[in-house]
């Protein structure tokens, strides 16, 4: 029978998607700033020097795209975007295996705080109750030990009194 089909290519990462979006934006920008529009804006110059107008337009578009790419690269570098995009890709990949849905804000800050804090506070209360029980048990044992010590002291005092009377 036929074997498994060709491997499904992985979805492009966010960094790649960002680069594609920027490239598409630059293409659309160049299309929006078409040569025809440029020539219409500088009609008089175009009529006198059509080749020169074309050359200026080509240089203008080329410089515009280059400077936009440089600016975007600076933003990517300053914001450490490639690392952040990769980190986000990893988080999304790891989240795919989760059973329960991720937390989302309700839009009501008080409820969101409560929903985040209540489980933590309940867990903390349970921890504090456990510690309290341990301390109470510890105190009970210490109290028993103190009472036993007092009883022993009382016995010893009686023994001392008895021996003292025996010597007299």
Outline of the structure:
It is built from six helices and no strands.
Describe the model.
The protein is mostly helical and 168 residues long. The chain contains six helices and no strands. The protein starts with 13 loop residues before the first helix and ends with a helix. The mean pLDDT is 89.
Question: End-to-end span in angstroms?
Answer: 114 Å
Instruction: Count the E strands.
Output: 0
Mean pLDDT, all residues: 89
Radius of gyration: 41 Å
SSE succession? HHHHHH
> Mind describing the biggest β-sheet?
none
What percentage of residues falls in helices of 4 or more residues?
Answer: over 70%
Structural class: mainly alpha
Furnish the topology, listing elements before pairings.
Elements: H1 14-32, H2 35-41, H3 43-48, H4 50-78, H5 81-95, H6 109-167
Please tag this protein with its features.
mainly alpha; rod-shaped; 168 residues
